[in-house]
């Protein structure tokens, strides 16, 4: 215990934490909530890297063989119903049911032969959402929570948004870095608002400001104590930020996709995923640092091909191609890192449990996509074997891709954090940046 | 890895010794004397303390041969070779891997001598890579670590030149003596060199300062460098920690606070807790804050003891009470209130890991398991069952009651799983659900989870390596894990003899049809709801040695003659020299060990957690991380409370009362120059954010009508502290999640969060739930408007009378439930509980008198509990409530902040209401502002 503060009012341990946790955390000696705005302003952001990120999770585990890693020459029991098509990059072929993505293949890189060993949904998701293989003693933070902790953002815009909810929590980085969840997905052509951000219909900004003024005048009991108390400081700061966000039109406008012209909106597709992609674009354009979104339904144990062809692939094709095109049109692609992944691939061998057949969980071989920032699009990195059953050469791991994602964002993947129990944790313990992505 | 079996007891002796050091008496006092030495060995017969290695190996030509365990490995550790980012990494580095932090002497010796690694070359000593690489920054990725010709170099060189041998047996370090044993700094420029003397079991002594690792727990107070030189820093106190071989020794460092001005000291207190805290304050020069006001006290005590915001009328009554003993009386009332059991059952459920997702499909009825778990705990806390008995019910849990057959068990459980019947499960002796969780099946998961829940220690590091600043080795961990391997509590398990009945019950349900798992589960669920008896899993002990014996007997038959020897599997309880033989259910022995007065974890773990509930900080922090390098901030205090708790038969009420009646708990938030930065020595009230459940309930209790909130308070319905908030299976209640309710998933007290966040502020300011609550026709605003004759759904009421009637009603319901539980006990246990039960009756009778109600005689209640009706004596001392706007604003303050507004606040609020479009708008805004103040969300 210390009875006096250092001249700058910060303990050495706090400084460590500021460098790592950013918005602060509960420490051994009590609550520490350093001023994250100041901290982040002086933060460790390398120039010329992606400022913001969009993370798309394909929940359920998409079949790699029917999407981005087709094996037209494989035996019948493996190959599946779909044929590959050429893309706008010579030599790169993807599924025939992804024609729009084929037209923008120069904007993203395909990672094939990504491999791990966790075949359960939950564990796999924790892995690909954090880049660290889950362990029981500790919960690793999601990418978005790390970015939220490492980056500054404006007071009237949320730093980290999940549509409709986060696939993974902030782990040891604590609640301050949790995503703002929209709880619902936007619908085509309809105004969209988010719980807590938008004012209820009958309340005007003037009324809210009048209330806020009342609150300011009544909330003074602990003014004297506040100078020395980080909890009280934190409550004041978050309170001001909440007020700024509620009353400023900026956040509300960012969420309202109906503000986009019809022509722009429709290139994303009219389903919830496509409109979520549109929303994610509006959010990063408005200064949100990290957006995560999801497209579920990929757990195709049965009727794999019908589900993919009639539902999942068209949605992904429209939404993702719309997003990449849109980001480029708005000049945001160079500053926005995009990552797309499921929790695993699916078995090369088609099962016979349903009439049409399906594919089961298969972490040994899967695909991921990367785009934006410094990623050079139009390339395929890594390779799977003849039946897409394993990486042909060295496997790429989820850790490697995570390290690359952070690298693309200018965040050092080997950076050391302290867990909430004081244990030192390397951000991505076992990953190496995949250099080919950036060359 | 466990070395040869024969080493185990010796290692454990050391662990025991170190434990004694950490937990017996003041950590500041001289280290405890060494345990009895091997017979025939007298310390005096040995030469004096061996000189430090830097002196003995200054000359490369020395004839002395260094010892692998005593010198070489610690030296490699000091040089950083076996660190996490170097060769201690689990992948190794540069084709060379050492055990992390270097406690696996055998493996490390092998790694060093591995010919392929080239680290040690006894034929060409200087070419050995452990010498050649670290002297050359270009060759060594880890940079230059050694100077040629230095004592470190000479030591390694001599060891290799002499044959690079290691002792076969691991040598036992009896104790590590640190001089000085305590440090007190007075000025800025003071420094103190530590000296470490190793006392080995063979009687030899050596100065090992140059081989120790040093760390400071707070280097702003005391910085320590790698040579063991401690430098004075800011005022305060901390520990520097020295480790060598298996010893970990914390050394207290104190620097008094310097205050120029005179500070008025509050009156002293003779309370044992206060005396022990005052002793520490005296050392630090801290003068504590004065005692808090009555308004602060009732709010603080109600929130901390019962997790419930006090009602406006309760505050008024307490403030008007002139009895000098009223704080003690309030404490007794609160400990006896339903909120106490509800809130603490929630906390116990946190620590024991009651997690619905991990319990999915553990019982055939969805959602039942966590409800049953909670109620089992709540009933015991309401009856103030001794802590060790509660834990025993969990640790040694059997699924069936004594004498119950499998069919009766299934009947009883089918019934108990129906919503509203949780009390049937609570009446059962055991709580086997603890063992049935999905994340509590592997022996190592159980070792970690068990140590976390009941011992307050983290042993997960030891799953892979011994931590340099903790005592548990990987071997301790593995041996401890073994104890849990023989308990099977998986979903479809039943004992052998129950199998036919299980099959029969299943056939009754399915009609003999074959169904897949999912269909079967749904069918069982449906049939149970229709009243059919469904089969339940049961916890069984698997006798592996019996199974092994059978298998061996079979093999023997086949092989004819060559008998296979059976070894009874063994496990070791942490730190114990004697194994537990696993040919019988080991859990009773485990429980016995925990309950033993010599156990230094069991009582301190719960004492420390309860303490931290009241102070926001434990006597040890983090609260679940008791270890040698993390000593208590006030060891005598922890010891006093732990011993007292044990001596009072693990009486939880005693523990709560002992803490809450102290001045330390009742201090004000007002600081003085000497204590304004104290967070760990309990010299003032340090504000903390309320827990998630408490906030969520407090918002409702402040914003809903009196009728509504009185119902919540008396029946605990819709109260999050009583786990009565509907939660979807995959999605928790929004507010509870935002405010950091414990996820109960990772064996860490940090699963619960009390940090503020942006989302929390947005929720309280602008969430639809908040607006709904303010605008509800059952809300306080509507009630207030009605009483003013303003527009709004009307409901005339006398809040104070209602309040008292509701409180009496709540007490009546609670007492009837207690009587029924008491009557359900067997006669023996009933006799044992009689005294406690009568006390509880008397306390209630006294309260009823104050409320103005009659109480039936005890015998009448016992004869027919349900016949008891509330009868007013007509003496209730309630005053008529005024309906002025001012009194309404005052009511808002009392509801939300448990105090009346001062003049200025009242004026601001009145002005605001008068300027508003309607009174309803104005009141709504005032209440909105009050629940958004910092004062609302923190303790004070």
From TrEMBL, chain A:
InterPro entries: Alkaline_phosphatase_core_sf, DUF1501, TAT_signal
PROSITE patterns linked: TAT (PS51318)
Classification via Pfam families: DUF1501
PANTHER family in the cross-refs: BLL7424 PROTEIN (PTHR43737), DUF1501 DOMAIN-CONTAINING PROTEIN (PTHR43737:SF1)
Name the record gives this protein: DUF1501 domain-containing protein
Lineage: Bacteria, Pseudomonadati, Planctomycetota, Planctomycetia, Pirellulales
From TrEMBL, chain B:
InterPro entries: DUF1549, DUF1553
Pfam families on file: PSCyt2, PSD1
Keywords tagged on the record: Signal
Membrane-spanning residues: none
Domain of life where this protein originates: Bacteria
All copies of domain DUF1549, residue ranges: 272-488
Entry-linked Gene3D superfamilies: 2.60.40.1080
Signal sequence annotation: 1-29
Domain DUF1553: start-end pairs: 587-776
Name by which UniProt lists this protein: Secreted protein containing DUF1549
Organism in which the protein naturally occurs: Aporhodopirellula rubra
Lineage of origin: Bacteria, Pseudomonadati, Planctomycetota, Planctomycetia, Pirellulales
């Amino acid at each position: 215990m210390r009875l006096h503060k250092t001249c700058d009012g910060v303990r050495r341990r706090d400084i460590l934490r500021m460098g790592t946790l950013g918005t602060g955390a509960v420490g051994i000696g009590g609550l520490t909530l350093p001023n994250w705005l100041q901290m982040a302003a002086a933060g460790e952001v390398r120039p010329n890297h992606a400022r913001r990120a969009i993370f798309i999770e394909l929940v359920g585990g998409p079949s790699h063989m029917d999407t981005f890693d087709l094996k037209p020459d494989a035996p019948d029991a493996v190959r599946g119903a779909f044929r590959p098509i050429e893309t706008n990059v010579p030599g790169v072929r993807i599924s025939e049911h992804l024609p729009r993505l084929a037209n923008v293949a120069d904007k993203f890189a395909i990672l094939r032969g990504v491999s791990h060993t966790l075949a359960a949904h939950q564990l796999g998701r924790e892995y690909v959402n954090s880049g660290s293989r889950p362990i029981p003693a500790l919960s690793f933070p999601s990418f978005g929570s790390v970015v939220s902790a490492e980056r500054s953002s404006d007071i009237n815009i949320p730093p980290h948004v999940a549509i409709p909810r986060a696939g993974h929590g902030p782990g040891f980085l604590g609640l301050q870095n949790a995503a703002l969840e929209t709880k619902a997905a936007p619908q085509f052509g309809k105004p969209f608002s988010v719980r807590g951000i938008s004012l209820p219909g009958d309340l005007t900004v003037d009324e809210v400001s009048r209330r806020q003024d009342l609150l300011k005048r009544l909330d003074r009991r602990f003014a004297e104590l506040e100078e020395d108390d980080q909890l009280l400081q934190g409550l004041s700061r978050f309170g001001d930020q909440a007020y700024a966000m509620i009353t400023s039109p900026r956040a509300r406008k960012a969420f309202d996709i109906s503000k986009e012209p019809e022509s722009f909106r429709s290139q994303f597709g009219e389903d919830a995923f496509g409109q979520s992609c549109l929303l994610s674009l509006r959010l990063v354009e408005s200064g949100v640092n990290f957006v995560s979104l999801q497209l579920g339904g990929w757990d195709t144990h049965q009727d794999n091909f019908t589900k993919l062809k009639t539902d999942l692939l068209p949605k992904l094709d429209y939404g993702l191609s719309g997003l990449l095109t849109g980001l480029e049109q708005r000049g945001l692609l160079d500053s926005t890192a995009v990552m797309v992944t499921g929790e695993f691939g699916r078995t090369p061998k088609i099962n016979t449990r349903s009439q049409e057949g399906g594919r089961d969980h298969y972490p040994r071989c899967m695909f991921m996509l990367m785009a934006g920032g410094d990623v050079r699009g139009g390339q395929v990195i890594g390779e799977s074997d003849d039946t897409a059953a394993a990486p042909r050469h060295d496997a790429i791991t989820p850790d490697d891709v995570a390290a690359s994602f952070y690298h693309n964002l200018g965040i050092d993947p080997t950076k050391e954090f302290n867990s909430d129990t004081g244990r030192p944790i390397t951000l991505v313990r076992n990953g190496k940046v995949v250099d080919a992505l950036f060359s | 890895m466990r070395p040869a079996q024969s080493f185990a007891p010796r290692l454990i002796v050391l662990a025991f010794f170190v434990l004694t050091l950490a937990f017996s008496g003041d950590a500041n006092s001289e280290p405890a004397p060494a345990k009895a030495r091997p017979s025939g060995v007298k310390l005096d017969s040995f030469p004096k303390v061996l000189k430090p290695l830097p002196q003995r190996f200054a000359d490369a030509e020395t004839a002395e041969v260094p010892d692998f365990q005593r010198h070489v490995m610690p030296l490699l550790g000091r040089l950083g070779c076996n660190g996490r980012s170097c060769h201690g990494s689990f992948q190794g580095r540069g084709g060379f891997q050492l055990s992390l932090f270097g406690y696996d002497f055998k493996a490390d010796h092998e790694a060093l001598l591995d010919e392929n690694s080239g680290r040690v070359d006894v034929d060409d000593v200087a070419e050995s890579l452990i010498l050649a690489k670290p002297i050359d920054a270009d060759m060594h990725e880890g940079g230059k670590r050694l100077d040629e010709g230095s004592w470190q170099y000479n030591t390694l060189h001599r060891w290799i030149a002499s044959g690079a041998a290691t002792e076969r047996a691991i040598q036992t370090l009896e104790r590590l003596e640190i001089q000085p044993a305590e440090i007190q700094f007075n000025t800025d420029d003071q420094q103190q060199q530590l000296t470490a003397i190793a006392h080995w079991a063979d009687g030899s002594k050596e100065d090992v300062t140059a081989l120790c690792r040093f760390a400071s727990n707070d280097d702003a107070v005391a910085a320590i460098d790698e040579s063991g030189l401690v430098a004075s820093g800011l005022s305060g106190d901390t520990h520097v920690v020295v480790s060598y071989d298996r010893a970990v020794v914390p050394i207290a460092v104190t620097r008094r606070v310097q205050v120029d001005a005179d500070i008025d000291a509050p009156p002293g207190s003779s309370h044992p807790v206060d005396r022990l805290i005052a002793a520490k304050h005296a050392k630090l020069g801290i003068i504590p804050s004065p005692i808090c006001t009555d308004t602060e006290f009732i709010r603080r005590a109600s929130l901390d003891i019962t997790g419930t915001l006090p009602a406006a009328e309760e505050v008024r009554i307490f403030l008007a009470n002139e009895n000098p003993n009223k704080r003690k009386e309030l404490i007794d009332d609160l400990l006896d209130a339903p909120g106490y059991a509800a809130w603490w059952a929630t906390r116990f459920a946190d620590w024991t890991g009651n997690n619905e997702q991990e319990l999915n499909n553990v019982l055939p009825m969805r959602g039942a398991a966590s409800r049953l778990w909670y109620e089992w705990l709540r009933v015991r806390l309401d009856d103030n069952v001794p802590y060790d008995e509660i834990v025993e019910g969990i640790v040694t849990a059997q699924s069936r009651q004594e004498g119950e057959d499998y069919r009766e068990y299934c009947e009883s459980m089918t019934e108990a799983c129906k919503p509203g019947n949780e009390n049937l499960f609570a009446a059962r002796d055991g709580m086997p659900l603890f063992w049935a969780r999905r994340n509590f099946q592997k022996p190592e998961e159980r070792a970690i989870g068990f140590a976390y829940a009941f011992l307050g220690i983290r042993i997960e590091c030891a799953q892979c390596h011994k931590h340099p600043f903790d005592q548990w080795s990987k071997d301790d961990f593995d041996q401890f894990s073994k104890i849990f391997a023989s308990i099977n509590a998986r979903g479809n398990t039943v004992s052998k003899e129950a199998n036919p009945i299980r099959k029969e019950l299943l056939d009754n349900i399915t009609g003999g049809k074959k169904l897949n798992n999912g269909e079967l589960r749904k069918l069982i669920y449906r049939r149970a709801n229709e009243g059919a008896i469904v089969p339940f899993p049961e916890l069984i002990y698997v006798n592996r040695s019996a199974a092994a014996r059978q298998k061996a007997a079979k093999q023997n038959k086949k092989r004819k003659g060559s008998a296979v020897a059976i070894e009874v599997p063994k496990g070791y309880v942490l730190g114990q020299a004697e194994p537990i033989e696993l040919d019988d259910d080991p859990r009773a022995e485990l429980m016995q060990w925990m309950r033993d007065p010599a156990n230094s974890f069991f009582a301190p773990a719960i004492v420390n957690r309860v303490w931290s509930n009241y102070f926001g900080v434990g006597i040890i922090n983090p609260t679940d991380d008791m270890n040698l390098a993390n000593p208590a901030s006030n060891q005598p205090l922890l010891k006093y409370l732990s011993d007292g708790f044990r001596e009072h038969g693990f009486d939880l009420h005693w523990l709560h009362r002992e803490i809450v009646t102290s001045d330390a708990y009742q201090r004000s938030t007002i600081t003085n120059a000497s204590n304004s930065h104290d967070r760990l020595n309990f010299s003032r009230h340090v504000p903390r954010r309320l827990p998630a459940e408490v906030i969520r309930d407090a918002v409702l209790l402040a914003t809903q009508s009196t009728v509504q909130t009185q119902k919540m308070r008396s029946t605990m319905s819709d109260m999050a502290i009583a786990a009565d908030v509907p939660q979807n299976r995959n999605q928790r209640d929004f507010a509870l999640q935002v405010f950091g309710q414990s996820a109960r998933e990772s064996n860490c007290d940090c699963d619960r969060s009390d940090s503020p966040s942006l989302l929390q502020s947005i929720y309280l300011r602008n969430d639809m739930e908040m607006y709904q609550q303010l605008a509800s026709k059952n809300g306080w605003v509507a009630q207030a408007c009605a009483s003013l004759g303003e527009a709004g759904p009307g409901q005339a009421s006398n809040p104070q009378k209602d309040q008292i009637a509701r409180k009496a009603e709540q007490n009546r319901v609670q007492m009837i439930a207690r009587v029924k539980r008491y009557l359900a006990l067997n006669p023996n246990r009933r006799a044992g509980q009689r005294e406690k039960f009568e006390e509880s009756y008397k306390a209630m009778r006294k309260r009823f008198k104050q409320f103005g109600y009659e109480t039936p005689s005890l015998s009448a209640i016992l004869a027919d509990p349900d016949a008891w009706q509330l009868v007013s004596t007509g003496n209730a001392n309630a005053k008529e409530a005024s309906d002025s706007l001012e009194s309404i604003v005052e009511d808002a303050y009392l509801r939300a902040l448990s105090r009346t507004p001062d003049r200025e606040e009242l004026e601001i609020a009145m002005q605001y209401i008068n300027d508003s479009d309607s009174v309803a708008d104005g009141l709504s805004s005032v209440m909105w502002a009050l629940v958004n103040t910092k004062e609302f969300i923190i303790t004070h």
